[in-house]
Structures are given as structure tokens and as C-alpha cells.
Amino acid sequence: MILCSLVLLLAVSGAGAGELDLGAMVNPAPVTAKLSDPDYNIWCGAPIKGDDGKYHVFYSRWPRKLGHQAWVTNSEIAHGVGDSPLGPWKHHDVALAARGVKFWDGSCTHNPNIARIGGKYCLFYVGNYGDGVLGKGLNWTHRNHQRIGVAIADSSNGPWQRFDQPIVTISDDKTAFDSLCVTNPAGCEHADGGVLLVYKAVEYVEGKIGGGKVRYGAAMADKPAGPYMKKPGRIFESDDGDAGKHWMLAEDPYLWFSKQYGNRYYAVARDVVGKFTSASGGIALFQSEDGLNWKPASHPKVLGARYQWADGTTSFSTIERPAMLFDGETPIVLFGAASDNKNRDGTFNVQIPLK
């Protein structure tokens, strides 16, 4: 009888552990739980707890006076440190600075994503190069030169080893979904060893400088520095029959492998048109058994189009660039890029507690 009871308890516990409901864990954000700087627009936010016991966040920044579109020409990846996962954050250094147009990432570094793989700190990111010209709109030369790289360090404080070539670049086939540029990497250690990387891509379209549809793919490698092998197919797609008409369905994934919740991969991503959460701009949770075939999780809605502050007010905007911070295997904070006005002339990173 004792053995039967134990088996039943383990079965029930295993079933419960397999159902991650991040939306039920979301709490209002303290008004102080934000990383901001009066001189810089801040975007992204890649958190990790360091071996020093402190919390580290890697974020994109560029001079606020240049406007939001200057992210594509002037962004650099900075590094902040805090004693609490909700801040306050102190700027520590610039982790990945501009290093000259002779390099593939010489003008701009952006979209940081941090993971611990094989005992190393692996900072995945996007880099580009170009003429540096600022205009009223996006500098398409810089945007279309975006490629994906990784910097590797023994410590969350660096120094960071950068490489002369990107780890993921565009496909030579002009009809491929990733034939114009590749961006927004998210990496984690594969359950069987090696690295799983998902990435955003834009397809080349003749006569359209910005290209066509935006979709996601996956690549794998035996070690963080590569080489990476692209896997066939696209991910974070919708089964909806009209999904193909949309320019973009999902964006900004952050992924991890969880032993605590079902021994599977999870990803949080922005639900661009509301296909997965019914909230355009909301945050959706996806799951996968192998890291290549993804579907909405049992509880797909993490956030709606807005989030709540602890003072009772509602945010001006949704969050973008979601990222997770963990205590061991337990998710404790959702990070996201946000703005408090439509001009995006004072963007910041907000930390939303999960309990």
C-alpha cells in the first residue's frame, strides 16, 4: 500500500510539474524595478546570476538624443550589475563596443542573449556595419548587414572573446526565408549537449529594400563558437490558415530547457498579431520536446498587451525582448524592453516578478 501510494504521488507530481503556467506567476512590477538612463535609450535586457553572487544584465544602449531608430547604427551592448534581481542596477562597463567597419560587427552590437553553456558565459548578439548615416527612418544598409555572433567569457564580468566571423549568416539561396538578414538570437545548452540556437530572419525580395516576411529558424552546434548547422523548417508558426498573410507572427524569443517542468524546452516570445494569446503584442509561452518542433504551451498567455505596476497603474506599452531570470530551475523575474511614450525617446528595461 505504501509503495502504491508513493507511485501515485510521483505520478501526480510529475503531471503537475509538466504544466508551466507563467501567466499565473506574474505579479505587478515595483515602480523602481527598471533599468533606465537619462542619456541613453535602453533596449533588450539579458539577465543572469554570476558566480560572484550578483545579478548581471546585458542590454543595448545608444545616445537618447539620436532617436530610437539609431539603434541600428549606434547601439552597443552594455553591462549592468545589481544586488537584487529587481535592481537597482549600476552600469558596470560596455561589454561589446564598436570596433571598426572592417569587422562584421564593427559599427553596432544589439540584441544580447546570455546563457551558461559548458561552464562558459556565452553572449549571443547581433552585429552589423555600415556608413553610420542617421536619417528620418531606418538605415537599411546597417539593418540588412545584421548577422549573429557570440562572445565567450569565463566570468560574467568578461573579458569577452569576440570572433572575426558571425556564427549564423544569411543563406545563399535567394528564395530562403533567411536570405536578407538574420537577427534576434536566443541560445541555450542542448539537453544532449552542444548548443541550440533560434534566430529571426528576413527573406530577400527583389526591389524591396526591407525584404519580405519575418520568420524564425533554428541551428545547432557542438560548441558555442560553432560551426552551426541550420535545421530545415521554420518555428513559432501558427496553424491558422491565414497565418501566411502576416508579415510577422512571433518575435524576440528567449529559450531554456527545464527539467522541473516536463523535461522540455520552453520559449517566451512576443505575440505580434495575437495568434497565440489573443493579445496583439502580448507575451506567449511555447514548448518543444526537441527544440525544433514548437507549439503553444498548455497555458500560452504570459502577458497581455500591457503589464501592471505595483502602484496600481497600467503600463503605457507592452514589453518586447522578453527574457527570464532563474533561481536554479525556478523562473523568478521576467525582463522586458518598454517605453512610456509613443516616440520611444526614453526606453528602458522593466523587471516583472514571478511568484
TrEMBL record:
Molecular function (Gene Ontology), one example: hydrolase activity
Stored InterPro entries: Glyco_hydro_beta-prop_sf
Signal peptide (residue range): 1-17
Domain of life: Bacteria
UniProt keyword terms in alphabetical order: Hydrolase, Signal
SUPFAM superfamilies: Arabinanase/levansucrase/invertase
Gene3D superfamilies, alphabetized: Glycosyl hydrolase domain, family 43 (2.115.10.20)
Name of the protein described by the UniProt record: Glycosyl hydrolases family 43
